[in-house]
Amino acid sequence: MKIAVMGAGAVGCFYGGMLARGGHEVTLIGRPVHVEAITKRGGLRFESAIFDGVIPIGANTNPSAVAGADVVLFCVKSADTEEAGQQIAPHLKNDAVVISLQNGVDNAERLAAVLKQVVLPSVVYVAAGMGGPGHIQHHGRGDLIIGPSPRSDDIAKTFADAAIPTVVSGEVLPRLWDKLIINCAYNALSAIAQLPYGRLFEVEGTKEVMDSAILECIAVASELGIAVSPDIREKTYALVKVMPDQYASTAQDLARGRPTEIDFLNGHIVRKGAEFGIPTPSNLALQVAVKLRELERAGKAPR
């Protein structure tokens, strides 16, 4: 299978690397610093308990590199969804399948509005980060849930054969909301403190703040008719046992001085809450705190 990864950061490099290691023709489309490092090294530096070494793989900075791909893994930041979709649109095969591997709950819908190809939502469960240019560090998991389509079963088998456990499910949206709730609980706090999940609970009151944010998320989901997992609170707190050393993607973005996706995480809850008259003060506080840190990092903090 020919596969392109649009927006090859940590998530894209992990799945692209696994598929390339599984024998597929993969092209990572990403920032020049990563493409240059991969080209010079002759592959992606892949550091994991699964495999530790260099995986030969294609790398390009131009969105036109999606040309000819059977499957495109779409991994850009949520704020860039429409623009990046428009960039790849002229180069996609008519029968290409685009899979959104993004944070947030509405990216596949937004992407489908600018593409004529099949767009599948997915739920991504992987802990990974960039250890440097062209260097992926995998910390845990790596399984996927993808939405149904005529080609989804074949894609899932292809991924599973490359050691990526993949399930096809019509329940992608509720599971995306489960993940959104977990992100709303952890991401802002990890980012503000620049601490991994495990250390957040060293401060008294952390669980109470998370609980408040979770309950607001559940209230909004209920108003939207989304059936989140009944044990979502337990699942949220179980994450710290599985990934105690993981920094949230929002924390990684802040550390690198990049815009975060907080407006599509806690900010999504705030917007939807406002639509339905549901108070979301905890999610608003977390959103605002992260945006203030963004200003600080950009040298624009109020003085």
Write up this protein:
With 303 residues, the protein is an alpha/beta fold. It has helices at residues 10-21, 32-41, 81-88, 107-112, 152-161, 172-193, 197-200, 206-223, 232-242, 249-255, 266-276, 281-297, and strands at residues 2-6, 25-29, 44-47, 52-55, 58-60, 71-74, 97-100, 118-132, 135-146, 166-168. Strands 1, 2, 3, 4, 5, 6, 7, 8, 9 and 10 form a ten-stranded mixed β-sheet that branches. Helix 4 (107-112) links the parallel strand 7 and strand 8 (118-132). The mean pLDDT is 96.
Question: Any chance you could write out the topology, listing elements then pairs?
Answer:
Blueprint: E1 2-6, H1 10-21, E2 25-29, H2 32-41, E3 44-47, E4 52-55, E5 58-60, E6 71-74, H3 81-88, E7 97-100, H4 107-112, E8 118-132, E9 135-146, H5 152-161, E10 166-168, H6 172-193, H7 197-200, H8 206-223, H9 232-242, H10 249-255, H11 266-276, H12 281-297
Parallel strand pairs: 1-2, 1-6, 2-5, 3-9, 6-7, 7-8, 9-10
Antiparallel strand pairs: 3-4, 8-9
Strand content: 15-25%
How is the main sheet built? 10 strands, mixed
Distance between the termini: 54 Å
How many helix segments?
Answer: 12
User: What's the mean pLDDT score?
Assistant: 96
Radius of gyration: 19 Å
Structural class by helix and strand composition: alpha/beta
Overall 3D shape = globular
Helical fraction equals 40-55%
The number of strands is 10
Which ranges are low-confidence, i.e. pLDDT below 50, for 5 or more consecutive residues?
none
Along the chain, the helix and strand elements come as EHEHEEEEHEHEEHEHHHHHHH
